[in-house]
Amino acid sequence: MELGIEGKVALVTGASKGLGLGVARALADEGARVAISSRSRERIEAAAASIGARGFVHDTADGDAAFALVQAVSAELGPVDILVTNSGGPPASPDALSFTHEQWRATYELLLLGALALVEAVLPGMRERRWGRVLSLSSSVVREPNPALVLSAAHRAGLLAALKTIARQVAGDGVTVNSLLPGVIATDRARELGLDNPEALAQLPAGRLGSVEEFAAAAAFLCSEPAAYISGTALLVDGGGARSV
After folding, report:
1. Is the domain 9-237 a CATH 3.40.50.1820 member?
2. Is pTM, for the whole model, over 0.85?
């Protein structure tokens, strides 16, 4: 399928590794001009070189720096046509009441405020040009909370609701806003949480971890021209793991 994004400018945050880098690679393979960001200059420059992208230093939790990042990308590559928001996960604990107020506030800035600031920075240009794709890399815990991931579930669910509202307001301008909800994908985060052990794998209907490439393929499609009539959607990529309808 021709995705129709050759020459489009894409910005993917939190993309020095894992899902972010995988999505950035998929977009670059489709001919998009890709910018990627992370907090570490060394890691983001190495990642950018590996996929033919441009690397930018940006802390996703710093909402005040979002506009400057978008302007820097626009100055080097052109106006942002595709925004993929992504970030690392917050701390995990089996005790949902064990987190400090500071950890709750920091997660709010990382997963909700920081992402919304990026969306706010790109939407005016997308609406003016009558074309744009906004994609949030979220988590399946917004549908079925995990006992150990209450910080992630609470704040990602809030962002999901906000993006659903925004999607309705910009649909008439040729801009789509969607979310991808990964289940257990083969990343460092999954391994850190122990989700790759035999007992955990046995609980998955697919019997295995998903690959980054499988997840990235879904992301690339939602960023494409043929996906123009899909907006306000949260798509599970979890090998059938979610039990909810």
Report:
1. no
2. yes
